[in-house]
User: Which sequence fits this backbone?
DNA sequence: CGTACGGTTGACGAGTGTCAAGGGTAGTGG
DNA sequence: CCACTACCCTTGACACTCGTCAACCGTACG
């Protein structure tokens, strides 16, 4: 229940041309499906956009914006309700693709509504593609669509894992699972073997992600520290953690 | 918490050849992407399989089985843990596609593990395709893969809606939302305008789907009846319901 | 008519949420 | 350089929703 929209941080962010050749996610994003010739074509369509923490890329209910790749940073995909409840339904890391939540191919008619708000959690860099241009490229280069299918299938997996967490796990298990997921993510991002890493979210966002309150999250983290399962410096930096024990606490 | 596996109802079911021409989901399943010539090719690959309520198509952890379309009936996609907790992460209705939970294209190596158990909830009829044959067809007929992407994207939407339900809604809201979803589903299946319909799940399965216990589900349904928002005959048949009020109760 | 199974209801307790106060830390301005 | 502020996190006390355990009811089926 963490619904305060800082009024000073509204939708926006700076914009500049993109350079695919030097892109950090050229080989891990959808773009990995393209040859360098094909990539040149995409490059003509694309622009870069930077967002500061708390800035919002789209609001739920607004007309759909362009597609985008996350190039740097972390964003959250959220649904809020008027009484202040909020749920994070997905985290977006570098190489994740944005903009297909409501499906493809709304060609002629006006654009559909975004079902979720997308908000920068850290300093965020996006690579943006206009919808029709990108959809045209997908038709010409089926490998692009194939990779999008792959990605969507694994996001579906993640969402379903989270349904198990939200539906059946205890507070302790949720927090343990969350930390394991972050450690895993960090390992894939090439951090130092995952033994030491930063949590990408504050307590409030963690709470909104795992379906608890700030206070409960805080208490559970304290518990894990007391049990010696994790060790932290400050509120966000995990210095060490006993993965074996975490897995036991996580409810598989 | 509804984990009893009836030992008399194990994996299995009868098998017979398929006839696409007379298929109930020819125009609503993935197959709608195919011309009748193309469909002939698919027909050569496919077989029908029938399952009785409670019979299991795959166990989580088992090697992946073939792809399949649901032709008739309802199945549930579940994850259970040893201590008896269970979560339904998806319901499968006619024209839904089965078998891509762990992604595509595991060609050479041995098949991947199914992450979820698939179990028949009512009398179930499946149309089964061998994995490699179907994947070959997908490569030849991109429209097939395109439709699969569409379907996967909307399943992702549903899963995320459910994350909001499981993470942030009260018991009352969950039950109201569930009934609305069922009514909606039934309307799409062409039932009598949705004013009167059967719940496809028993109390236990509803509980496992919306992250509550049998008792809480039962109490909440009783509440809705007392408030005059729904009216039922027996435990499963909804005679009438006030959609406006239900939507108000559902937490949007 | 008896049994089995699923659903309902009640009493009680545990686990989280809520509300409120206090502590840390980083950033700002004097 | 230090005080002040703001924000986030932590901790405690208490309330409340939902889970647990148990008994009972109704319907289907042998």
Assistant:
């Amino acid at each position: 229940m963490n619904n305060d929209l800082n009024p000073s941080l509204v939708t926006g962010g700076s914009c500049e041309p993109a350079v695919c050749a030097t892109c950090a996610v050229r080989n891990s994003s959808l773009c990995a499906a393209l040859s360098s010739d094909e990539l040149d074509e995409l490059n003509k369509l694309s622009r870069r956009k930077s967002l500061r923490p708390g800035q919002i890329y789209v609001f739920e209910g607004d007309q759909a914006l362009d597609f985008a790749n996350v190039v740097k940073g972390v964003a959250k995909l959220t649904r809020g309700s008027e009484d202040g409840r909020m749920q994070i339904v997905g985290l977006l890391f570098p190489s994740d693709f944005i903009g297909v939540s409501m499906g493809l191919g709304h060609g002629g008619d006006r654009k559909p509504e975004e079902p979720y708000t997308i908000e920068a959690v850290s300093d965020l860099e996006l690579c943006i593609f206009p919808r029709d241009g990108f959809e045209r490229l997908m038709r010409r280069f089926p490998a692009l669509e194939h990779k999008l299918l792959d990605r969507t299938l694994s996001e579906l997996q993640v969402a379903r894992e989270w349904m198990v967490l939200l539906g059946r796990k205890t507070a302790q298990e949720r927090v343990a699972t969350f930390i394991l997921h972050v450690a895993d993510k960090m390992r894939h991002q090439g951090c130092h073997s995952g033994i030491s890493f930063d949590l990408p979210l504050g307590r409030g966002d963690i709470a909104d992600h795992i379906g608890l309150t700030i206070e409960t999250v805080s208490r559970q983290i304290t518990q894990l520290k007391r049990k010696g399962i994790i060790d932290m410096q400050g509120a966000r930096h995990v210095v060490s953690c006993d993965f074996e024990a975490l897995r036991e606490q996580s409810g598989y």
Summary: The interface with chain A takes residues 77, 79, 81-82, 85-87, 89-90, 100-104, 115-116, 142, 145-146, 148-150, 152-157, 159-160, 162-164, 166-168, 208, 210-211, 251-252 of chain B (CB under 8 Å). The longest strand of chain B covers residues 86-92. Confidence is low (pLDDT under 50) at residues 1-9 of chain B. The helical segments of chain B are 36-45, 131-140, 142-168, 171-188, 203-210, 214-226, 243-249.
